[in-house]
Amino acid sequence: MTKKSRESQDIPKKPTRLIFCCSGASNVGALSYLASMRLSQEEFGNFSCIAGIAGNITPMVEGAKKAQERILIDGCPTGCGRRIMEIARVPVDRYIVVTELGIKKTHDYDVDDLDIETIVRKARHPG
Fold first, then answer.
1. DSSP state, 120?
2. From the CB of residue 87, how many other CB atoms can be counted at a distance below 10 Å?
3. What are the backbone dihedrals phi and psi of residue 97, each rounded to the nearest 5 degrees, phi first?
4. Which of 47, 53, 27 is nearest to 112 (CA)?
5. 3 state SS of 12
6. What is the phi/psi pair of residue 20, to 5°?
7. The model's pTM
8. Does residue 96 sit in helix, strand or coil?
């Protein structure tokens, strides 16, 4: 398998809903990652790699730009994920900040399934 064919396997073949997250070094980063994973497992969208966007991997950036919808879950107002998408000029259609959902940021990495469910619910029902 060539490098090009390996890279193209990372990109969905048709436009779809992509889910990105910043999985920063805190509980809210871990929560954003776990919620993104759950949304993907529940087939709400495809969990996509924000590191590939930050690394300017052309097929990944182009695939993200072609998606029908892009959801970004950032852990805190620092907005690392948002900045990555801005630099790559990838639009974000739905933006969630975990701390804005009443979840306090800590550095103990304790996560609660109820917090994951809160984030998942917000992603599914933005209103």
1. H
2. 11
3. -115, 115
4. 27
5. coil
6. -120, 155
7. 0.88
8. strand
Residue 48: DSSP 8-state: -
Cα separation of 71 and 78, whole Å? 17
pLDDT digits (tens, 9 = 90+) for 84-126: 999 999 999 999 999 999 999 999 999 999 999 999 999 999 8
CA-closest candidate to residue 50, choices 74, 25, 15: 74
Full domain range(s) for residue 41: 16-124
CA distance 57 to 75: 23
The CATH number of the domain holding residue 53 is 3.40.1400
Average pLDDT score over residue span 20-42: 96
Q: What's the CA dihedral at 75, 65, 60, 51 to 10 degrees? A: -20
Asked if the structure places residue 52 within a domain, the reply is yes
Cα separation, 43 vs 28, in Å, equals 22
Residue 88 included in any domain: yes
Which amino acid is it at 104?
K
